[in-house]
Amino acid sequence: xxxxxxSFAIKTKNVSxxxxxxxxxxxxxxxxxxxDVTSLIGPSGCGKSxxxxxxxxxxxxxxxxxxxxxxxxxxxxxxxxxxxxxxTLREKIGMVFQKPNPFPKSIFENVAYGPKIHGLAxxxxxxxxxxxxxxxxxGLYEEVKDRMDDIATGLSGGQQQRLCIARAIAIRPExxxxxxxxxxxxxxxxARIEELINExxxxxxxxxxxxxxxxxxRISQRTAFFxxxxxxxxxxxxxxxxxxxxxxxxDYITGRxx
Amino acid sequence: xxxxNKRLSAEKRFQAYGxxxxxxxxxxxxxxxWKIFSTGSGAFVRTTIEANVFFNPDFxxxxxxxxxxxxxxxxxxxxADEVVRQxxxxxxxxxxxxVREMYTRKxxxxxxDYLLDNPDKIGQSIIMKITASSDLDQIVKGxxxxxxPEAQRKINDYQLSVLDKLxxxxxxxxxxxFWFFTKxxxxxxxxxxxxxxxxxxxxxxxxxxxxxxxxxxxxxxxxEEFVKPGKVTDIIEVNINNLAAVPSIVFGLLGLGMLxxxxxxxxxxxxVGGLVLGFMTLPTIIIASRASLRSVPPxxxxxxxxVGATKxxxxxxxxxxxxxxxxxxxxxIGMAQALGETAPxxxxxxxxxxxEIPGGPLDPATGLPSQxxxxxxxxxxxxxEKTSAGIMLLLLFLIIMNTAAxxxxxxxxxxx
Lengths: 258, 416
Known about the structure:
The complex is a heterodimer of chains A (258) and B (416).
Chain A: H1 2-6, E1 8-19, E2 22-33, E3 37-41, H2 48-55, E4 65-73, E5 77-78, H3 86-92, E6 93-96, H4 107-118, H5 124-137, H6 141-144, H7 157-169, E7 175-179, H8 187-200, E8 205-209, H9 213-219, E9 222-227, E10 230-236, H10 237-242, H11 247-253
Parallel strand pairs in A: 3-8, 3-9, 6-7, 7-8
Antiparallel strand pairs in A: 1-2, 1-4, 4-5, 9-10
Chain B: H1 2-40, E1 45-54, H2 57-60, H3 68-73, H4 77-87, H5 93-100, H6 107-117, E2 125-131, H7 134-141, H8 157-168, E3 172-176, H9 179-182, H10 195-226, H11 231-243, H12 248-262, H13 270-294, H14 298-306, H15 311-339, H16 343-347, H17 368-377, H18 382-412
Antiparallel strand pairs in B: 1-2, 1-3
Helix pairs in contact in B: 1-18, 10-13, 10-15, 10-17, 12-13, 13-15, 14-15, 15-18, 17-18
């Protein structure tokens, strides 16, 4: 049982989220296994993005958002507790957003920014190494190595998103949250990112929100189905997509609603 | 089909009205420009009379060994009179007074300045172009009619005959009026310049910028990024917007009452003028800065927060640099408005007759618009062209500042 606790990257229990009086997440309990890709699927407005953003406290900035419930990082650290600062938390839990959002600075600066503010590199050459390694791991290095000083917003959409992934992994997180990272990309760029996610799961725990069920089935080991703020079903992807326990899940994945 | 024709002709009519409105406003702008330029261009040349100047040591009581200080302190009035007598031989005393009036009153200073630059000319003769009096200048430029009765003329018949004689000898000529750009104000139109007012305005704008820009930027960053929205911020927001529409003379009164009255800062100095213009510009800067902070996409803030930046790092590393072009543009436009503002300067005394060119923000000074206002009130015809020329200079500065604002926005703005 002790082993079981340690194999979870994040454990959550009885999570409820309200925007003002409106309930967005209703009593969700879900654990995320380490070094797996977990997909959160469900129709629009089901609360999957809200739930994802609770995991690294990105909802803190939204005034009306109230989060209740238990969140444990590696089974011990309370994510909303006093023992961890939100900046340290986000160093451990990185995030990639729906729309690529590189800083309008050079490609190098984009990746180097995180390591710089967290003091991960003491010399310039260390910083160069981190940037190079991160870009390499994000599969972007070969494409941009000759133009590291060019402004990042000049890259293509798919390159920008891979740059954002490089930016996220440059601070050596344990977990990467991805909020529909391919929804603004064309099929080729999407395939490239999916390939990348497959490689990254060796080192990181990945939790990804996606609208595409085929994507969920391609890239994830675990899938959680949300509907109207409730977690309907959570389990191995192969099981969810072949013989789900719940009628609702079956209806959704076969395209009967959503 | 009939109704379609009706709608189409309605559109044609509407376009015709619009074209007419644009043409009419262009016409008024052209009239304004033509009036200013035709009146003001005369200020850039001044009439001179050629004369032989013999720097006779006896008249100025100096010699070749005199120090610069002595040359500076010496009186050149007698020498000036002597130059006039030499240039017009055989004058009786009454005629001499009339002829002396044709030269600028201050030409003893012109002689002194020449000698200070060329001390070796003591005891020697040179040919010098001596500035004519403003009244003669206006006659030569054709601004005063010659064919009216003598009693209505500032230049009498005898002076006119002398002028015609000088003209026929080729001694009357026009030179580019550097004085207008290098001198301070003067009672005599021919030696009045705008430089003192330009420097006064420059010091005031420097003070205005260094006071209003940091305060405006910090206030807007705090209001936009850090403070929780609530009743108090709503009230502040409404008040900032209202302050932007408060008549500028009210800010002048504030400066007079508070800065000069309570704090005890000196009267008619650019320091106070700049602070008052700063008060006036603050709301403009805050509004522009908040708008440009708001236009930074939230995704940039999220991106920075997601890699573990603190709120302040997010704001200072990413949000402010991206909003700066908009803030600077707003600031420059606000300062361009401040440059043309006369009323606050009137209230704090920057509208006095100041001959000296101010050497710093604590020297008495006028501003460009108040100098124009002063000249426009003067009776002499010579100040009329100075007024228009001053307006031309003011417009030039405004065009430069507004162009700078556009260039900054184009160059630095990030395209999303």
